[in-house]
Design a protein that fits this description.
Structural class: mainly alpha
Distance between the termini: 13 Å
Shape: globular
Number of strands: 0
Largest sheet: none
Strand content: under 5%
């Protein structure tokens, strides 16, 4: 375990250096000039001297590699700079919006688990039954319907027509229901089919037949053996698709005016707020890397075969 954690630590260093350079380069190559945005050139009469003076104050007249080096030194000290739009520290702005984004992500994952585990399990246990057929139809519909369209339907139904749930802002758990349902239902379709397929494969293994021969109950066989054996492929797909989940959170936050960092970065893109965009990319990339590392480490618990292979190689 210590060797794995040490290897992951060095992987983090290489990953952070790579992602900092790529994010810095891509943001600087994006169209638009933050200097002109800050000065409101379209609304005010600004001289070229004022534009060049502000560009020099912000360091944009220096070579790109020098700008990156200065920014990287500040980043090492956990200084992400100041927002061009508000003048506030970028890290403070991200930390203020991060709890709302985490709430929405956890709520969506909770909905996904409530939908995918029962439907996927029942589809595998009652293969080709009416439950399996309904599960397939719902999975196809969930994969075909865009999350923003589903969110608009929920806003119209539960907000405008029935007026029973809030559709904007963040005001307690009740305001989390519609965004979580929208995102959770959108991502659950993939996991329903994946869990069904993985469970069918697990139920056909020799160790399941051996467990039945020993007289174990079907409930214990399913939860203690079959379900546990089928989880690694599902967790693998979750780790790979975490970036899609983060992208979905951004769309849902904008749709429901949920004050998380997704909505924050969309506003930053409109305002050419480079420090905030770079800070968001780095924070999200590090979160994805940490989650994927936790996924790799969880295999040792969920799949005992990996422990046996490690012992054999020693």
């Amino acid at each position: 375990m210590i060797q794995i954690i040490t290897r992951k630590f060095f992987e983090v260093l290489v990953f952070v250096l790579f992602i900092t350079f790529v994010s810095f380069l891509f943001v600087r190559m994006a169209p638009g000039d933050p200097v002109l945005t800050i000065l409101n050139v379209d609304e005010l009469s600004v001289s070229q001297e004022q534009v060049e003076a502000l560009r020099e104050d912000m360091g944009f007249n220096k070579p790109l590699i020098v700008q990156y080096g200065l920014w990287l030194m500040n980043f090492i000290q956990f200084d992400f700079g100041l927002s061009y739009a508000t003048g506030q520290p970028v890290l403070d702005m991200i930390l203020m919006g991060l709890p709302a984004t985490i709430e929405l992500s956890v709520g969506a994952l909770f909905v996904m688990l409530l939908v995918s585990i029962p439907l996927g399990s029942l589809s595998a246990l009652y293969r080709n039954s009416w439950i399996d057929q309904i599960s397939r139809v719902l999975s196809i519909l969930g994969a075909a319907i865009p999350s923003f369209w589903l969110g608009l339907i929920f806003i119209d139904l539960f907000g405008a027509r029935l007026n029973i749930l809030p559709t904007m802002g963040r005001d307690g758990l009740i305001s989390l229901i519609l965004p979580s349902l929208t995102l959770g239902l959108a991502i659950s379709s993939v996991y329903v089919r994946l869990l069904r397929s993985s469970l069918l494969d697990s139920l056909s293994q020799e160790f399941i037949r051996a467990a039945r021969a020993r007289g174990l109950s079907e409930t214990r066989i399913f939860f203690a053996h079959a379900l546990r054996h089928s989880l690694p492929p599902v967790i693998t797909v979750f780790g790979v698709s975490l970036g899609s989940l983060i992208g979905g959170v951004v769309v849902i936050e904008v749709l429901f005016a949920y004050p998380g960092i997704g909505k924050l970065v969309v506003d930053a893109i409109r305002q050419r707020d480079y420090p905030l965009i770079q800070g968001y990319i780095l924070i999200m990339a590090i979160i994805v890397f940490i989650v994927n590392t936790c996924v790799d480490l969880s295999y040792r618990y969920l799949n005992p075969e990996m422990k046996l292979k490690e012992r054999e190689t020693k």
